[in-house]
Amino acid sequence: MGYDKSEQYNSNTNSKFNKNFNNYNEIDLQNNINNNSDSDANIQEDIEDNDKKPDEGDESNGHKGSSPDSVDNNDRKIEKEREQKEKEELDDDKIREYGQTTLVNEKRKSKIHLLSIIGEIEGHECLPQHNKTTKYEHVLPQLAAIEDSEDIDGLLILINTVGGDVEAGLAIAEMIASLSKPTVSLVLGGSHSIGVPLAVSSDYSYVVPTATMIIHPVRMNGTIIGVSQTFEYFEKIQDRILSFIVNHSKIDRETLKGLMLNTSQLAKDVGSILVGKEAVEKGIIDEVGGIKEALNKLYELSGRS
């Protein structure tokens, strides 16, 4: 009997244990389901929150809350400012290196190229570094670019030169005379020797009241062979200069030659000095005037007045 009671006790105990164990399993399973549901809900909330937040990269770039259009506008503005700065630097370099720039008049919607011919006209040999010079290898390509440009309306030439190489001076003068764009020259200070053909090479010429122009025969440096052929060569060079001046001004050949061979004005040379109004009276220069008159004439010739 004792054995039966013990067996019955063990049976009852095992039954209760199994029942409790099953209950615990049900509770754990339910808890796991609840925990998984909470985790899924949290993940979904995180995804929604991330969608609502602005891009951190945009905040670091200063574009927080900015639309793509505004960002593009800012980029275009920065690019435009950069290009404008580069253009100003190039213009400054152009003035410093070559004495050239472009005059832009927004009101008249015109662009005038400014060319300065100063110092000595340099030829095929380089002059000393301390000399102010105009180099034909700089001027000629620029004149070709002006002729080919659709943006340039005209050319203003400022002249203050002591003269220089005949071949280089005539080359520049011929280029200016052959331009289809309107051209105006303004003599400031002086336009001597080969500077005279340069002054008359434009469509219209001005001289300030105090400027001077020296007209004299051809000179040559270096070795000269004392034969008749040398003087004939001088005569040909001189004839080229006379012909150009006569063809591009109002002075006649005999009057010009008389001024060139005048012996009564220069103490150590042959030739004539014309001051301001005298150059106009002789028919070499068209009018006495300054920068205002020269620019207004150029606007008139280019149809921008």
Keywords:
305 residues, alpha/beta, 2-enoyl-CoA Hydratase, Chain A, domain 1, 2 domains, two-stranded antiparallel ribbon, 10 helices, 53% helix
Summarize the structure.
The protein is α/β, with parallel strands linked by helices and 305 residues long.
CATH topology description of the largest domain: 2-enoyl-CoA Hydratase, Chain A, domain 1
Number of domains: 2
Distance between the termini: 138 Å
Give the integer mean of the pLDDT values: 79
Largest sheet: 7 strands, mixed
Q: How would you describe the overall organization of this protein?
A:
- The chain is α/β, with parallel strands linked by helices and 305 residues long.
- It has ten helices and nine strands.
- The protein folds into two domains: 52 residues; 203 residues, 2-enoyl-CoA Hydratase, Chain A, domain 1 (Alpha-Beta Complex), CATH 3.90.226.
- 53% of the residues lie in helices and 18% in strands.
- Strands 1, 2, 3, 4, 5, 6 and 9 form a seven-stranded mixed beta sheet that branches. A two-stranded antiparallel ribbon has the order 7-8.
- Strand 5, helix 6 and strand 6 form a beta-alpha-beta unit.
- The N and C termini lie far apart (138 Å).
SSE inventory with pairings:
Elements: H1 2-52, H2 56-60, H3 68-98, E1 100-105, E2 110-122, E3 133-135, H4 136-148, E4 154-164, H5 166-177, E5 183-191, H6 195-200, E6 204-207, E7 212-215, H7 228-247, H8 253-260, E8 272-275, H9 277-281, E9 287-288, H10 291-301
Parallel strand pairs: 2-3, 2-4, 4-5, 5-6, 6-9
Antiparallel strand pairs: 1-2, 7-8
Helix pairs in contact: 4-5
